[in-house]
Structure formats: structure tokens, C-alpha cells
């Protein structure tokens, strides 16, 4: 058996074994719960910092997250225009804990978004990034347990999220020309 499918069935077999585990998986896989939590965390990060330099660093992290999300969505849309992978529930016997999304399973767009949060904050604020990593990883596992993604969909999404956020950070001498004016504009409006 394909290792990806075998791992999917191993994780999906946890569904319907325990009501508290099912409740947790449903809460995590929800389209809004974890993404809203991560958005609130980086919203707070935008305004946090002990001094001007720390706030500047945190604000750069937030803007790199947003830039990474935009790029990840472009990459995934281009990828999915050329390749469609059916969801596990369409081809396998699955214990489904979530609704049936109709878009391609590979790569996972929600997981890519979650890992944009992690990658964007990692270089600037490790304590916050560790929490983001924890919630993003829990979200990713819940997607497999709930029966809506294969493990390789999760890995593909995470890689796209990390790479599309890391590249603009790596090219900071170019992207800072976009980021610095945004932060300065926010400062003029007392939003930074």
C-alpha cells in the first residue's frame, strides 16, 4: 500500500473512537477557529514590543506573513489549475468529521496559510512563532484525522507556506522597499 494512504488511514482511524477527540478534531479543522486565533495573535504582534525597534521587527514579521499568504495562494491556484487530486473521501473509505470540500486536495491551501504565519514570525519572534507552530501543526493533523487531506497534501501545503514566506524575507533588500513605507504610513495613522 502507498505509504501516504497507509498513514492517512492510520490517522483517520482515530476518528469516531472518542467523542472528546472528535470534538477537538472538529474544532481544530474548522475553517475559522485556528485561522482566527492566528490572525488575532499576529494582530496583537503588530502592536506589541518593548521599544520601537522590537515593534518594528514585529510589524515586519506581520507584513511578511501577509505577503507569504498572498504568494502561497497564487502558487496554489496555479498548481491546482494544472493538477487535481481527489479528496480522500472521494477515493477511500473514510471516517469523515468535516464537510466535503470540492477543491483539489493537493496541496492543502489552509495548511499553507497556517505555515505562512509560522515562517513569517519565526525569524523575528521565536516565542510567538512556537505557539503558531503548535496550533498550525495541530490544525494540519486534524485535517488528516477528519478525512479531508492526505498527509502529503499537508506536507506540500506546509512547504509552500514556508517557502513563499521565506523568499520575500530572503530578498528583504527588495521587499523592504514595499514594507517600510507601509509601516511608516501606519505610524502616521497611529496604527503602528
3D structure, described in words:
Helix 3 runs antiparallel to helix 4 and helix 6 packs parallel to helix 8. The protein is an all-alpha fold and 192 residues long. It contains nine helices and no strands.
Q: Biggest β-sheet: count, sense, barrel?
A: none
Q: Level of helix content?
A: over 70%
The helix-and-strand class reads mainly alpha
In terms of DSSP E residues, the strand content is: under 5%
Return the average pLDDT rounded to an integer.
92
Q: Extract low-pLDDT stretches.
A: none
Q: Could you give the count of β-strands?
A: 0
Total number of helical segments? Answer: 9
Radius of gyration using CA atoms only: 18 Å
The outline comes out as elongated
Sketch the topology as an H/E string, one letter per element: HHHHHHHHH
Q: Span from first to last CA? A: 53 Å
A few lines on this structure:
The protein is an all-alpha fold and 192 residues long. It contains nine helices and no strands. The model has no long low-confidence stretch (mean pLDDT 92).
Q: What's the topology here?
A:
Layout: H1 3-12, H2 19-29, H3 33-47, H4 52-82, H5 88-91, H6 109-122, H7 126-145, H8 151-170, H9 172-188
Helix pairs in contact: 2-7, 3-4, 3-6, 3-7, 4-6, 4-8, 6-7, 6-8
Amino acid at each position: 500500500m502507498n505509504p501516504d494512504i497507509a498513514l492517512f488511514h492510520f490517522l483517520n482511524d482515530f476518528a469516531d473512537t472518542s467523542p472528546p477527540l472528535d470534538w477537538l478534531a472538529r474544532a481544530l479543522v474548522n475553517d475559522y477557529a485556528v485561522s482566527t486565533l492566528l490572525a488575532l495573535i499576529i494582530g496583537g504582534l503588530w502592536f506589541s514590543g518593548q521599544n520601537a525597534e522590537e515593534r518594528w521587527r514585529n510589524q515586519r514579521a506581520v507584513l511578511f506573513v501577509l505577503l507569504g499568504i498572498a504568494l502561497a495562494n497564487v502558487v496554489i491556484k496555479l498548481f491546482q489549475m494544472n493538477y487535481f487530486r481527489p479528496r480522500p473521501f472521494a477515493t477511500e473509505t473514510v471516517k469523515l468529521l468535516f464537510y466535503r470540500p470540492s477543491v483539489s486536495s493537493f496541496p492543502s491551501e489552509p495548511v499553507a496559510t497556517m505555515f505562512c504565519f509560522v515562517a513569517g514570525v519565526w525569524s523575528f519572534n521565536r516565542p510567538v512563532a512556537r505557539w503558531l507552530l503548535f496550533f498550525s501543526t495541530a490544525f494540519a493533523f486534524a485535517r488528516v484525522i477528519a478525512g479531508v487531506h492526505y498527509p502529503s497534501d499537508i506536507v506540500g501545503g506546509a512547504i509552500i507556506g514556508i517557502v513563499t514566506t521565506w523568499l520575500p524575507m530572503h530578498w528583504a533588500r527588495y521587499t523592504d522597499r514595499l514594507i517600510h513605507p507601509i509601516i511608516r504610513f501606519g505610524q502616521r495613522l497611529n496604527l503602528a
